[in-house]
Amino acid sequence: MLPAPPIESLTAAAAEGATLGNSAYAFLLAVPLLPLVGWLLQVFFGRKLPRQGDWLPTSGMALSALIAVVMFIRVLFQWNPDFLMSSAEDGFAWRFFFSDGSIPAPIAQFTAGILYDNLSAFLLAMVALVSFLVHLFSVGYMQGDSRYNIFFSNLSLFTFAMLGLVLSDNMVFFFVFWEIMGLCSYLLIGHLAQDRKQPKMSAAWASLKAFMTTRIGDVCLFVGMAVFWAKFDTLSFHGLYTATADHVAANGWEGWMTFGAIMMFLGAVGKSAQFPLHVWLPDAMEGPTPVSAMIHAATMVAAGVYLTGRIYLLCSPEAQLVIACVGAFTAIFAATIGITGFDIKKVLAYSTISQLGYMIAAIGVGGVSAGLFHVITHAIFKACLFLGSGSVIHGCHHEQDMREMGGLRKKMPITYITMLVSTLAISGVPLFAGFYSKDAILAKALEKSMVTQEWIWAMPFYLLVVAAAVTAFYMFRLIFMTFHGEPRSDHAHHAHESPWTMTVPLMVLGFFAVFGGKFWITDPLHAVSGGRTPWFMALVHDPDLERWESSAIEQAHGYGGHGALLSHAADGHGSGEGHGAAAGHDEHHDVAHTAHVRAMITSIIVATLGILTACLFYLFGVFNPKKVAAALGGLYRLVFNKYFFDELYHATVIRGTVVFSGFLSWVDQNIVDGTVLLVGRTMKRLAGFSGAADKYVVDGAVNWVGESTQAAGQAVRRIQTGRIQQYAYFTFAGAVLLAAVVLLDLF
Amino acid sequence: MDSLPYLSLITFLPLLGMAVILALPKSQENAIRWTAALFSGLSLLFATVVYFGPFDATAGVQLVERFDWIPAFNIQYFMGVDGLSLPLVFLSALIHFIAVFASWNIKKSMKGYFALLLLLEVGVNGVFLALDFFLFYVFWEIMLLPMYFLIGIWGGPRREYAAIKFFLYTLAGSVLMLVALVAIYLKSGGIAGEPTFDLLTLKSMASTWVQDQSTFLGMKFTTWIFWFLFVGFAIKIPVFPFHTWLPDAHVEAPTPISVILAGILLKLGAYGMLRINFPLAPDAFADARYFLAVLGTVSIVYGAYVAMAQTDFKRVVAYSSVSHMGYFLLGAASLTFAGLNGATFQLFTHGTSSAMLFLIVGVVYDRAHHRDLNDFGGLAQRMPFFLGVATIGIFAGLGLPGMSGFISEAMTLLGAYEVYPVLVIISTLGILMTAAFLLYALQRVFLGSLPKKYENFTDMDRREAFCLVPFAALCILLGIVPTLVLDKMAHAIQLLSEELSAYTGG
Amino acid sequence: MPLEAYLAVAAVLFVIGLTMVASRRNLVYVLMGLELILNAANLNLVAFNRFHPESHVDGQMTALFVIILAAAEAAIALAIVLNAYSHFETIRPDDIDTMKD
Amino acid sequence: MAALLSFILFAGLSIGCALLCLFHRSVVISAFSLLGTLLGVAGLFLMLGADFLAMTQVLIYAGGILVLILFGLMLTPGDPGEMQPLRIFGGLAIVGGGAVLFLMKMAGVAEWGSVEVENLPAPQPTVDEIGLELLRRDSYLLPFELASVILLAALVGAVFIARRRFEYVDEGGKA
């Protein structure tokens, strides 16, 4: 850690009194470093330790989670919407590339530090906690795996990367951790492919697919970074916010900013499995069941949402539209695939993609806090659903096809109840966790469309509404097919409830699925918003981009902090900032309120519709799903085959790459090298050098090496060879020497 | 002399070792091996001492050793080190040292082999340290001969073909360089009265002869020497379309020689560009910049795509070298501080990562005696430790963040984006393809079911681990603390970029 | 064209000729190499002559004599080659090393 | 421009043919490429205003010496493995290196391109002058006569040496 000169002052509002003191950095640093230490120990000593050292990373993770949660609680009790700690601001920064800051190049001024605000505090605690649970769960689940210790080391590294990512204050480190996460995801998905006894090749392909697909996004993210770097010469989030604010104030939004923001967003598209890079997530279920499911459902995919939230301030209106549309489209697109799936885990995977689409769309329409809110609630009920599906699969002797299930309600009551509760939550039934977050997202989308009055901005809202109905439908289809009706196979007949190690976590998660949402929106202290806004949404609130344009002059002088940029609150708190803004706020508030009420009603209606339809199809048997499918014909097949995206990519991208690389290889062999060989052959014909020459050279070399060892004594005698051609050389040498002496005064 | 002649020691200790080896009887195999290890180790030791000791990153050329060698032609023995050459010298000493251990099992006339290996090190170290153009050229030629024999005698089945191809290509490059050398020498005589080979003096003269508007066959003097030198060095890098000697040479060369070839020999061309080609013809360089960047981009993408189609593991790695060295050209052509630093750092990082990849191929080849990727599978079950190291190597090769390759590629691309955004976006295709073919190779070698014939495979032994681990450690260490190298280079590169940027204004 | 251009051509011819004399392994090539060397010398002579008008035709005269002598030399040398072949049954100069020691 | 082009043509012809001659495996082709070299040099002579010499070059070299060489070839056996490119490359490197080393200093002091041949006074036909010089007593008369003696001696000597050859063959046959 080398001290850096303070970068330009962050906003006073953020800096004064809103920190936890410099000692906090040591604790914050410990949060990612503990898993790192665990990883190192595990890598070097894991096999030799008792129990293959699983307790090492797990206990380290426990400590790390404890610190993260305690820190989060401390932040919570600050109750400050503008809470912000930046280690670069406080003099702790790491000159990463060059330690000599006197070089007048932007890259030499680059420093890396910690950024800790409400958003990262919350996410840090959540990630640390979930990761700890995953560690704990793996102790039991992975028992007996042939690469037990390696699994734990990969898990620790993954956690380290994710925690580091949350704390990064700059794009470079963000990207570094982002990619390390990709690596770990690759290793974890492919874990079974390296099994010492029964390597599973499908896992290898799935891991390769996951890594390559997300890497397409990563490369785009890098290009996005480069776009902003080329113009602003900075890569710290705050530097980017400030520079963007200044630039927008002076020039308005420009095309390259849209381009850069969309490129960065494509990184999130890859990581959060958004259309069109969604194909890897269903296959990623090849990883060890609950663990990889939880990582890919709760933590890693949330990184994409986090990224979108972080770069939201760099997004021009066009870029926001793209984000919103991609998210909304993904939500409905993946949901429709969920309707036709029969593999219980694949259905849940597509459901994850769909829900991630919600979060991304929420950020696109300006609801950063709504999107992140959905991250939490989704993490809870999706974890419950995944564990529940694990329990079902376990109970049905590793049967994953829902057509082979049925009637499990009575055989697995706990699993049934908890999964039902989670399904209600994901469907957006009032009073369950998902309702609040989904409602907030829909409200935000509707509000955006009402404010802008443009048809294109209405699209996300309608798409999301339809997606909500579809979600309710396919989730209840899952429940009905699995738990209701008659058992349709031997496995289902002989199903049994899972042991308590699996049901207890289910019950805990189910409990939160019911009350979790309520908890997050209750405002026990009424401290932040006077009780009108959920505290979570008040603390992690939506940044307001429009104010950048409206108060350009203020921006140019003194704004710069994240907090200040974020300080628009939905309840109208920032209204002292300027007349225009104040007037706008009241109006805005009315719109928000109207939108909220309408969205709530819509959301309830569509959820009910979806559930009722599902009942008609699968519970009461009013319609026969098979006949409907047959009636739909081609459309059904299209959806059933996931819109043929795997096939499409295989036929275009992969096939194209292979063909193109084969073609280039041919060119290399025949044209580029061919030209060289042609020249060579011409020379060969010209000079007739053939095997004889090679032999002469190679053998000559051997001889030379051999002879040179004893050459010295014979050298003089050798001159007298009797070969006139050597004499010619000597003559020539003598002539040169003589000429040198005479003409050039060489000696 | 107030301190040890470090640079001469680094350069000529291996020569002493070669003499000792030649004096040893052929039957003393162990003595020969350990002598080679000792002398290359001593060279490495001195390189390390210089790296962390007397070298001052803020000063320019230092530790100078200079006296007249051939006064009649004003040729000097002029050695010196600066930020540009220091990391490469260290890398060279390290790679040769490791290569000695990687060669431990060479059987065929091993005395000659180790003697040639040490001679090669003399040439390579000398090229990096020489500051007299003539001396540079002499070392350059010293280096070619051992390489030719090492491929031609100890190589694979088509070794003669590969060796001749290597030799003719590099000979062509040398001839072009020689022409430029003479031309520059004569030109300097016209300016300073007495012609000189001193690179520092020549560099300062560059501003004079760019004024010379007279043309020869339609091109200016600087344009001529720029292209002559450029083609000469580009063959060595190698840049598309001069790269076809590389895969053949790699495939036929024994493992340690591939390691040296990819690890350090390719860097000579790049170093020559930075040291001689660009500074001596700065205006021609400024004119040709865009073209060079395009060549770099083509190399990146083309190398990656061609590598994808190969089934020979070593060919895959060889083409990945073509791809990776493209970054150097792209970064250097961008002329931004970040781009130049990234390009130069890329030389170092590619030295470590490609050396590792070739060692990995070697470990597999020593057991299976073939390199056909489609014929492998499931080695993970027999070689778990090797799998771990190979994973590090492969991820270092594809530039995973947290490893040194990422730092250099990121800096190169960030720097280049300011100047050539479109090219950078195209070259990111190369990043993707590199990841694809390396991981695909990893998958085909290690994963899946284990064929019967490989059941008796053993994991890496200590010697192989000793060769691989230092590189793995370097890759990770420099990925986390890149300042270890970047700080040493920063001032030299800053100077270079200022000098060169002066000509790009118009 | 400057004088140096001709001199350069002559130098190249000389180098090729000397190489041919020294490294081809057939006596007839040695002869041809000699002819090349002589031609190089002639070219020098004529070129210098042209660039020094005060020398009238001296250079050309010398070149003329060189040509004459070359004709004589060629005749004799070929006779020697034939003779050497009949004596040693080879025309490889390497193998004709009776002058050794 | 025409001068430059014709120079490149002639110089290229002579050097290219010389290289071909040096490297080619077949003696016959080498001999004929030597013809190209000789013609190229003749062209250069023409450019240098030596018209008589150019004609002599063509007549004596191309017409005489080359035919001699061809006869020599016919009377000696072919030698397929004779050509060794690396030996030639090595020779080129040694000779060329020496020449470059030497020329470097020379060329360093030369004033490059100071006088162009085109700027000199136009050349006059030289046949008359050469003819007069050859027959002037205080000039080249004596060498001229000596040359004719040498040619005669060479003629006789060549016949003599070549004649003895047949005797040798007989003796060699016995031995």
Structural notes for this entry:
- The complex is a heterotetramer of chains A (747), B (506), C (101) and D (175).
- By secondary structure, chain A is mostly helical.
- Chain A folds into three domains: 1-216 and 278-313, no CATH class; 321-541 and 577-636, no CATH class; 644-746.
- Chain A is built from 31 helices and four strands.
- Chain A is globular.
- The model of chain A is unreliable at 1-17, 527-531, 549-583 and 689-695 (pLDDT under 50).
- Chain B has a domain at 288-506.
- The model of chain B has no long low-confidence stretch (mean pLDDT 88).
- Chain D starts with a helix and ends with a helix.
- Helices cover 78% and strands 0% of the residues of chain D.
- Among the domains of chain D are: 1-75, Four Helix Bundle (Hemerythrin (Met), subunit A), CATH 1.20.120.1200; 124-166.
- Chains in contact: A-B, A-C, A-D, B-D, C-D.
- Chain A binds chain D through residues 683, 686-689, 692-693, 696-697, 700, 729, 732-733, 736, 739-740, 743-744, and chain D through 20, 23-25, 81, 83-88, 91, 94-95, 98-99, 101-102, 105-106.
List the helices and strands and how they pair.
The complex is a heterotetramer of chains A (747), B (506), C (101) and D (175).
Chain A: H1 12-15, H2 23-45, H3 55-78, E1 84-86, E2 94-95, E3 111-112, E4 115-117, H4 118-141, H5 148-167, H6 171-189, H7 201-232, H8 237-251, H9 255-271, H10 280-283, H11 289-311, H12 317-340, H13 344-364, H14 368-395, H15 408-411, H16 413-427, H17 433-452, H18 455-483, H19 490-493, H20 500-521, H21 535-539, H22 546-550, H23 552-556, H24 562-566, H25 579-619, H26 625-632, H27 634-640, H28 645-687, H29 691-708, H30 715-719, H31 724-744
Antiparallel strand pairs in A: 1-4, 2-3
Helix pairs in contact in A: 2-3, 2-5, 3-4, 4-5, 4-11, 5-6, 6-7, 6-11, 7-9, 9-11, 9-12, 11-13, 11-14, 12-13, 12-18, 13-14, 13-17, 13-18, 14-16, 14-17, 14-20, 16-18, 16-20, 17-18, 17-20, 17-25, 18-25
Chain B: H1 6-23, H2 29-52, E1 62-70, E2 75-81, H3 86-102, H4 110-129, H5 133-154, H6 159-192, H7 199-209, E3 215-216, E4 219-220, H8 221-236, H9 245-252, H10 255-280, H11 282-308, H12 313-334, H13 337-368, H14 384-397, H15 404-419, H16 421-446, H17 462-480, H18 483-501
Antiparallel strand pairs in B: 1-2, 3-4
Chain D: H1 2-23, H2 27-47, H3 51-75, H4 85-109, H5 127-135, H6 141-174
